[in-house]
């Protein structure tokens, strides 16, 4: 999987991971992948729901040492 941009949202509380993800997605072209690193537990549900509502594709979600990593493909 080729990642176009990495967003570090570690240490940010809701709603900041979503706000920063939206902003980062604006810089990407359709089909490009954004990798997001977050520590806010609510980000798992929030980012999954946000991706779905925007027509984006959540490709993968991994949890490692309290850091969640998301890979979202822009619609």
Automatic annotation (TrEMBL):
Top-rank taxon, per record: Bacteria
Cited InterPro entries: TusA-like, TusA-like_sf
Domain annotation UPF0033: ranges: 7-31
Family affiliation: Belongs to the sulfur carrier protein TusA family.
PANTHER family in the record: SULFUR CARRIER PROTEIN YEDF-RELATED (PTHR33279)
Name this polypeptide is given: UPF0033 domain-containing protein
Organism placement in taxonomy: Bacteria, Bacillati, Bacillota, Bacilli, Bacillales
């Amino acid at each position: 999987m080729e990642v176009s941009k990495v967003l570090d949202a570690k240490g940010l509380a809701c709603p900041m991971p979503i706000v920063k993800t939206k902003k980062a997605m604006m810089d990407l072209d359709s089909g490009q992948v954004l990798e997001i690193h977050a520590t806010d537990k609510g980000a798992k549900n929030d980012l999954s729901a946000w991706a779905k509502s925007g027509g984006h594709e959540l490709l993968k979600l991994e949890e490692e040492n309290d850091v969640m990593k998301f890979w979202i493909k822009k619609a």
